[in-house]
Design goal:
Order of helices and strands: HHEEHHHEEEE
CATH architecture: 2-Layer Sandwich
Number of strands: 6
Radius of gyration: 15 Å
Helix content: 25-40%
């Protein structure tokens, strides 16, 4: 899958920044925790297109969601996206902690390009993106995971961080066969 022209999408998204983001099309099989994370993010937006990082407070989040949250910085260099925080549940599933690594170096997806396309889409559109496609992880395991990527913006225009939440079905405890 080729990423769309990011500049074109970004320009289109900025024309509509005053609009509420369109709710993702959650499939019937979507886990309630994924929808709960979206609803939390939306409420923190306070009527804005996207909340800022300072609006996000773990104390306000349902505790069950915390282990599966990642914060990813959008950076203006060849790394593009860098893991700032990776929840303990995701670390367990991955088999290692990619905090401080670029998404290119620490992705948990079928391939690096697949992971980057998800982040690129959120940055270009300034809107949430739900990725619910099953995939084969780098360790060869079949993964049924849904990840919602939620933009954060300190200036209300540019995405400078992405809050990602993943719900993985049936993979708890396989981390010993995975390495980053």
């Amino acid at each position: 899958m080729q990423p769309k022209n990011a500049l074109c999408l970004r320009a289109h998204a900025r024309e509509h920044l005053d609009m509420e983001p369109v709710r993702p099309n959650f499939p019937a099989t979507c886990h309630p925790d994924t929808i709960a994370m979206y609803d939390y993010w939306r409420a923190k937006g306070g009527g804005r297109r996207m909340p800022a990082r300072s609006d996000i407070d773990p104390v306000d989040m349902p505790r069950r969601l915390l282990p599966f949250i990642n914060l990813v910085d959008v950076v203006a260099d060849e790394r593009r996206y860098v893991y700032r925080l990776v929840g303990t549940g995701d670390v367990e599933i991955r088999g290692g902690d990619p905090t401080g690594k670029s998404v290119l170096d620490g992705f948990f997806a079928p391939c690096a390009e697949d992971a980057l396309v998800c982040y690129d889409r959120v940055v270009a559109t300034c809107a949430p993106f739900l990725d619910s496609e099953p995939f084969v992880a780098p360790n060869g395991k079949y993964v049924m995971e849904e990840t919602i990527f939620l933009p954060l913006s300190d200036d209300g225009i540019n995405v400078n961080m992405i809050l990602a939440f993943s719900h993985t079905r049936g993979l708890r405890g396989f981390a010993d066969t995975t390495s980053l």
